[in-house]
Amino acid sequence: MLEQGPVVKKPSNVERALLEFIDVDSRAIGSGLQEMYYRIGSMESDNNPNAAAKESSAKGVYQYLTDNAEDGKNSSFGVALNRLSRAFKKAGEEVPKWVAEAKKHKDPRKLTRDQSNEMLLADLVLTPRKSRKYLQDFLVKRDDQALANLYAEVHHTDTKQNDNVEKRMQERLGAAPSGETNASKLVVDTMARESNSRPGPI
Questions:
Q1: Which long-range contacts (CB under 8 A, 24 or more apart) does 199-202 make?
Q2: What is the Cα–Cα distance from 108 to 92, expressed in whole angstroms?
Q3: Which of 70, 106, 125, 138 could form a disulfide with 146 if both were Cys (CB 3.0 to 4.6 A apart)?
Q4: What is the pLDDT of residues 27-68, one digit of tens each?
Q5: Residue 5 counted as domain residue
Q6: Is 6 a member of any domain?
Q7: How far apart are CA 40 and CA 114, in angstroms?
Q8: For the whole model, what pTM was predicted?
Q9: 59 DSSP β-pair partners
Q10: Could you tell me if residue 108 is inside a domain?
Q11: H-helix or E-strand containing 150?
Q12: Do residues 131 and 40 lie in contact, with contact meaning Cβ atoms separated by under 8 Å?
């Protein structure tokens, strides 16, 4: 039987290195990292790892674009993978083979949830946009507005769709204005589902 309450999942080495880079102690954030993953995934795809947008090339749980931009620059998926490669090097680790394979197949849906999570965190931490304060305020203080700002200004940058993001997050996930959320129970439930349905690492 699953215990309801805060979920504390030990960060991977690369996640820990990324948190240290923004001066966040991974031992002090409880279930914050898993809540962030769940809530952004819910906004993007209802946490569906096989999601594919109808009007763009966005795919996967975090809806990364797989087509190159009109100016020829790398897709958002390619950019995120490049940042993840940098993150592994910062952590003093060899870049896993699955990263190079993902750059070839260009399909976020082929990643495991843990791989997608590591990629998202690397993308958020190593972006040139001002994400550090938002990450600190949500992970340490559970500031819902900080998470809404992080989502709207850093991850999901279509400003036409970013009105009232915090309110939509609250309605979708049961987050109260005080900053207390029901996300930890949702994390438990979704992790249980995924452990039974997700394929192993590619």
A1: 199/112, 200/112, 201/98, 201/112, 201/115, 202/98, 202/101, 202/102, 202/110, 202/111, 202/112
A2: 25
A3: 138
A4: 889 889 999 999 999 999 999 999 999 989 999 999 999 987
A5: no
A6: no
A7: 14
A8: 0.77
A9: 52, 64
A10: yes
A11: helix 144-150
A12: no
